[in-house]
Amino acid sequence: MLPVSGLGELVLIGTGGFIGASLRYTISSRVPKVLNIPAGTLTVNFLGSIVLALLTFSSEPKSVVYLVNIGILGSFTTFSTFAYETFKLLEEGQNVSFFMNIFLNVMLCLLGVSIAYLALRL
Predict the structure, then answer these.
(1) How far is CA 52 from CA 18, 34, 39, 55, 84, in A?
(2) What GO MF terms are annotated (predicted)?
């Protein structure tokens, strides 16, 4: 890995950002809505929560944090898209899907962190 200082940090973050954004597009564009819930965004946020927690709880070196946690996962997971899609559900009168999308995103992401935490403790 590159040294973690100055330009090296930016290169790691930028490289990770390209990878994460490409993965997010690939995954979220292939996962169809389920009961009007944007399951693609839910999927990337859930997977990202697991990976972030696995790396964070395992005390990876700074180079991995810059590449994966900040770069890849920073562009792979997406709170802004979640917020937009949730708002659109409300705007379209999809009240049940609106609340389910919020509930599922929060609970599944917390579940993902818990799974990672427990997996590393076993």
Answers:
(1) 17, 25, 20, 5, 23
(2) fluoride channel activity; metal ion binding
